[in-house]
Here is the input.
Amino acid sequence: MTLESVLTKRRATYQKRLSKYAKYVMNDHFVIALLFLVGAVAYQYSNFVKMLPVDFIWGKIVAAFLLAGVLFFGKIATLASAADQVFLVTEEQGWQKIIVEAKKRSMVVPVLFILFLVAAAMPVIYIKQAFSAWDFVVLVSIGLLLKWVHLGLEEAALRFDSEDKITQLKPLLFIVGVISFMVAFFVHPLLGLLVAGVGSVVFEGQLRDLRTQLIDWEKLVTTETDRMVKINRFINLFIDAPTGKEKAKRRSYLDFIVPFISGTGNPYQYLFARTFLRGTSYFGLFGRLTAIGAGILFLSNSVIFNLGLGVLILYVTGFQLLPLYKEVSENVMVRLYPQAEEEKYTGFSQLFLRILMVQAVVFSVATWVGTNLVSGLVALGINILFVLLFIKGYARN
Here is the structure.
């Protein structure tokens, strides 16, 4: 059996697995809810664009930073496994070709993502101005060209002695992306494409020597494992799926939050707080849902929609954070705590209350900005009431 046949079989298994979970993720209820949500957001977005002045340059600046940021979305899908660094390590040359082919296939999803974001950004970039299909094609080409450079960085990062160089080049790629889109928006799209092309040539020269290095097998396997964990974590929002092995992150920059959410006198609450902040799933999920919800509420001027959406996202957040209690409880070392079992739930509920209250306040402020002060205060009252009912009732059961 050749290396190519092994990887072909592995890709087929991978695609079959994703197809199996796709029918659960894209179920009828989710699709209908998604259509309503997209329609509501599109309607509010169109009204927001109509209120913008023609000389609104901040829209172009934000769009440039946003499009430059999404270049870093998506990794190379090598499908490497832990056993490969033992049994397939001798196939160095074959894996070099596999990685190059994987980089090409990994462009599919980013292409769709860039197409969608550029299309969504066009009304803000050209406020009340005419633009042609060629302008759209050129802007998409800038994004695809720079995305190919990013995948080149990801490819080079899988080699030995590349970490320092890649760490330096990634911020530079973001800067080149911002400059390219800025030039395209404020001067001419073709000139922005030229800047992106020159930048890609420079990056290619910087990466040429790194591609000759041997593959760092430990990094190759770790990178693919982390990629699969992120995919499984998303699938796990809809159906029970193995999320794989996740790593805790220190996040020392969040230490100032610990006294607020951990309280005093309850060791369980401190443990739950540290688990929440250092975990790769719970804290990231909370941050993403909060940011998405606040963004939609900020753009919406419908009071009823804002009140309903705020409560809905609070429920989704609370529901997804409930497994944190079970995860900590299953740790055998926790059972050695000389504390009553009731103290464990008390600590969890106090942490839960403070986390959801923060989100409730953020959504209320976003509703206030999007509508008016009275609506913001009403949203605050409804959100707080829902959080209390959720924790005292639903979460308790």
In short: The chain has 17 helices and no strands. The CA atoms of residues 22 and 235 lie 8 Å apart. The mean pLDDT is 81. The longest helix spans residues 341-370.
